């Protein structure tokens, strides 16, 4: 079985980080899958995903050193994924990655084994989640909802969709099952 780059995308507030954390915990002992950390120019204590915090200078130095397999800029931050994913894929290990929908086409060009996974949520649930987290004002929430509506109309070709309107266990188990289907258990992370 070939290894896949399982490229997970979803709107801010869809629960992507929560589902990925759930899957990571439930697949921790399975050697055929690794979860890639992202290198981000934001503080380590900023909340959200478990990432490697870099300053702008550190990010630029790693980029110049060709240490990123993938990198992009979004919402005023720089994101990178280390070249270690290439070693894992070469060993037959599927890699789960928190990706960017805007960067998907470039990522697909670099990784033909890329499997896009969209975490989707209804507009009503997304509105509730965005308002509850309190990071954005009402106007910003409405802009995010409008962007979400546009993105929902253009689900990437070949993407698998996980609906995350229910409890975390429901969406989490769906993601775990998907990852298991596209990974194998006879390799180990390097």
Which features does this protein show?
Rossmann fold, single chain, four-stranded mixed β-sheet, disordered C terminus, 190 residues, five-stranded parallel β-sheet, alpha/beta
In short:
The chain has 190 residues and is α/β, with parallel strands linked by helices.
The assigned CATH architecture is: 3-Layer(aba) Sandwich
The tally of strands reads 9
CATH class: Alpha Beta
- Span of the ends, CA to CA: 19 Å
* Overall pLDDT metric: 90
Can you tell me about this structure?
With 190 residues, the chain is an alpha/beta fold. It has a single domain (5-181), classed as Rossmann fold (3-Layer(aba) Sandwich). The protein is built from seven helices and nine strands; from the N terminus they run βαβββαββαβαβααβα. The strands form two sheets. It has a five-stranded parallel sheet with strand order 2-7-1-8-9, sandwiched between helices. It has a four-stranded mixed sheet with strand order 4-3-6-5. Strand 5 and strand 6 form a beta hairpin. Helix 1 crosses helix 7 (168-181) and helix 5 runs antiparallel to helix 6 (138-153). The radius of gyration is 16 Å and the shape is globular. The protein starts with a strand and ends in a 9-residue tail after the last helix.
């Amino acid at each position: 079985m070939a290894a896949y780059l399982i490229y997970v995308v979803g709107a801010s507030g869809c629960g992507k980080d929560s589902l990925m954390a759930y899957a990571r915990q439930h697949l921790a002992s399975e050697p055929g899958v690794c979860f890639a950390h992202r290198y981000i120019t934001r503080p380590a204590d900023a909340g959200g995903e478990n990432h490697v915090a870099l300053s702008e200078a550190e990010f630029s130095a790693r980029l110049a050193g060709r240490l990123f397999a993938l990198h992009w800029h979004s919402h005023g931050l720089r994101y990178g994924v280390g070249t270690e994913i290439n070693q894992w894929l070469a060993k037959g290990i599927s890699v789960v990655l928190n990706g960017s929908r805007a960067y998907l086409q470039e990522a697909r060009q670099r990784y033909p084994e890329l499997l896009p996974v969209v975490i989707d949520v209804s507009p009503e649930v997304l509105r509730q989640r965005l308002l509850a987290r309190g990071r954005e004002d009402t106007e910003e929430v409405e802009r995010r909802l409008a962007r979400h509506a546009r993105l929902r109309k253009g689900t990437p070709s070949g993407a698998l969709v996980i609906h995350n309107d229910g409890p975390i266990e429901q969406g989490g188990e769906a993601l775990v099952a998907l990852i298991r289907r596209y990974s194998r258990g006879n390799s180990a992370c390097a």
